[in-house]
Amino acid sequence: MLVDRRTRFHNLMKSISKLRDQKSKLLPAIILFLFIPISQSYAQEIKTIGNAQITVVSKAHADKFSHIIVLGPGDRLEPISTLNSELLRKISGKSKFHGLTPDQVALGMMLEPQQWQHVPVFKIKNKELRRILNISTNYACFTDFSK
Q1: Residues 115, 97: contact at Cβ < 8 Å?
Q2: String of b and e for 25-52 (b: at least 16 CB within 10 Å)?
Q3: What CA–CA distance (Å, rounded) separates 108 from 72?
Q4: Dist CA 99 CA 88 (whole Å)
Q5: Whether the Cβ atoms of residue 106 and residue 96 lie closer than 8 Å to each other
Q6: Which of 51, 69, 38, 10 is CA-nearest to residue 136?
Q7: Model pTM greater than 0.70?
Q8: Cα–Cα distance between 57 and 45 in angstroms, integer?
Q9: How does DSSP assign the chain, residue by residue?
Q10: Is 123 buried (19+), middle (13-18) or exposed (0-12) by CB count in 10 A?
């Protein structure tokens, strides 16, 4: 044995091994939780954006979601709210979207993708690309890219 059982290093190795075992047991449950449709109890209202009607996730529900810790760029642990706000700014050029927080937008997209595919959320600056996509505004939706 390379490490004596009475040393702190050995105890740390045992602790890390236990954490890895716990993590591997929790991962399938977390993944399953993220993909199981949640009942409409999270919804407070219906909002019309462009030609699409979306179910708005309540701010309280989105706030609870925002505290989940994820692995961000550079292998840094960060709250998912950071990732959501960076993503929303990247695709829409805004820090909020029609009065919705980045967490409400991200959670709404995950829970109701069939509604959000018709929401014009992608900012398109290039006039030629807008012409190719056949859109008259500066924003395109998911379905505009598949026509």
Answers
A1: no
A2: eeeeeeeeeeeeeeeeebbeeebebeeb
A3: 21
A4: 13
A5: no
A6: 51
A7: no
A8: 8
A9: --S-TTSHHHHHHHHHHHHHHHHHHHHHHHHHHHHSPPPGGGEEEEEEETTEEEEEEPHHHHHHHTT-EEEEGGGEEEEHHHHHHHHHHHHHS-SSBTTB-HHHHHHHHHH-HHHHTTS--EE---HHHHHHHT-SSSEE-GGGGG-
A10: middle
Structure tokens at 138: 């500066």
As a residue count, the chain comes to 147
The Cα 39–Cα 109 span in angstroms is 15
Query: What confidence tens digit (pLDDT) does each residue in 3-21 have?
Result: 677 787 778 888 888 877 7
Query: Tens digits of per-residue pLDDT, 106-134?
Result: 999 998 899 999 999 999 999 999 999 99
Q: What is the largest CA-CA distance in the chain?
A: 71
